[in-house]
Amino acid sequence: MTISTEAHKPFPFSSAVGSLIEATDAIKNFRAIALLALTFIGAVLVGGVLIMLAGSMSSTLLVFLGGLMAFLVMFYGSNAVGILLMRDAQGQPGMSLVDAVLVSLYTSHRLIAVVFLEFLIVLAAMIAIAIILFVCKIPVLGPVLYAVVFPLSAIVLGVLVFALFYVMLPLAGPAAWSGASVFQIIARLNLIVRTKLVSVILLEVLLFLITSFTALLIFGVLGTGVSLTTGMSAGILGLGGGQMNMYALASGLGGGSGSGYIIAAGLGGGLLMAAAAVVPGLIFTKGVCIIYLNATRNVDFSASEASLNDGLAVVKKKAEEARERARALAEQATAPAAPAAPAAAPACPNCKAPVASDDVFCGECAHKLK
Fold it and tell me: Which terminus in the chain has less CB density within 10 A, N or C?
C-alpha cells in the first residue's frame, strides 16, 4: 500500500503548528479507539495466561514466550491503529479493523528493520570516532589532533542522537504507515534530518505539550467525577468512608458487606482509567502522522532514494567481490597438490644420447662422464 503525499499543498511552519490542533480529532475515530482497546486487552490476556501457566509449571521458557506474545500483539495492534490514523490524517477513506490488522501484519516488520538500521548507523559512527580517538593517543601530535576531533565528535554524536530520538524513531512509524518500503523510509527520514531537523523537533515539542495538556484535562475531569461519585456511593449504598477510598478501589478485595461494590467499583474504575489513557496515545499517534505529512509535502525524494540505492549497490558489489575472493582463496587452500614432474633421464652432455646413471663413458661418442 503506497499512498502519495504530494496531493497536499505545502504548509508554512505557522500553518503546520496550527494543523497539530487537528490531532485532538483522534478521539472521534471510534475504530482506532476500539482497535487500541482490543490491542490492550489482547496483550494482557495472551501474556497473562502464558505467564500464569509459567508460574504453575515453573517454566522460564513460557515466561519469555508470554512476554514475546504480548509484545507482538501490542506491536502489530498499535501499528494497525497508526495505519487508521494515518489514513484519517491524509483524508483517505476509512478502513475496517480487519483490513487494518492485515495491513499491519504485512508491513509493520519494516519498522523493526528500520530501527535496526538506524542503530547500526549510530553504532558505526561511534566506532569510527573511537578509532579516531585511538589515533589521538599518538605522542605530541595526538593532543593537537584531539583539539579538533573533540568538538567535531561532540557535534556529530549530538546531531545523530537528536536525529535518532526526535526524527528517525518517531517518524519511522508514520513513514511505514503511509506505505513506504524500508529503504524509502531511511532515505526520506535522512532527507528530513538534513533539511528540517529543527522545525520537526519544535513541532514534536508542541505535540508533547498538547498531549500532556489533554491528558491532564481528561484525568482532571475523571478525577473530579470519581471523587464525587465515590462520596455519593458511600452515602447511598451504605458504605463506610473507609471502604470507598482509593486503596480499597485499587485492591477491591476487602471484607465486609460492601466488598461486592468495592470490587465492581475497582473493575469499572480500572476500565475507565484505561480508556482515558488511550486518548492521549491516539492524539500523539495522529500528531506524529501530521508532522510527517507536513515534513514531506511536495518534497522530491527521488534523488535521496537514488543516492541510497547507489550506495547500497556499491556496498553490495564490494561484498560480492570480497565473497568471490574468499571463495577463491578457500578453493586454492583446499585444492590437492599437483603431482611432481618425473625427473628427466640422464643424457650425455656431448651428444645428448641417453646414458645410465652409473656409466663412466658415453656408449655413443665415448665421452667421459665421470
Answer: C
What is the DSSP code string of 108-135?
A: THHHHHHHHHHHHHHHHHHHHHHHHHHH
pLDDT digits 0-9 by tens, 151-201:
999 888 888 888 888 788 888 889 889 888 888 888 888 888 888 888 888
pLDDT per position as a tens digit, 4-22 = 444 444 455 566 666 777 7
Identify the CA nearest to 65 among candidates 44, 47, 42, 81: 47
Q: Report the sign of the C-alpha dihedral through residues 201, 207, 209, 211, in that order.
A: negative
Which grid coordinates belong to 204? 514534536
Predicted confidence (pLDDT) per residue in 271-314, tens digit: 677 777 788 888 898 889 988 888 887 776 666 556 656 555 66
**Length of the chain (residues):** 370
Average pLDDT rounded to a whole number, residues 52-78: 82
The residue that leads in pLDDT, 49 or 215, is 215
> Which residues, in sequence order, are bridge partners of residue 347?
354
Cell reading at 14:
505557522
Rounded to the nearest 5 percent, the helix, strand and coil shares of the chain are 75, 0, 25
CB within 8 Å of 13: residues ≥ 6 apart: 199, 202
Q: Which amino acid is at 20?
A: L
What is the rounded CA–CA span in Å between residue 291 and residue 82?
A: 13
Task: Give the residue from 62, 160, 179, 181 showing the smallest Cα distance to 114.
Answer: 181
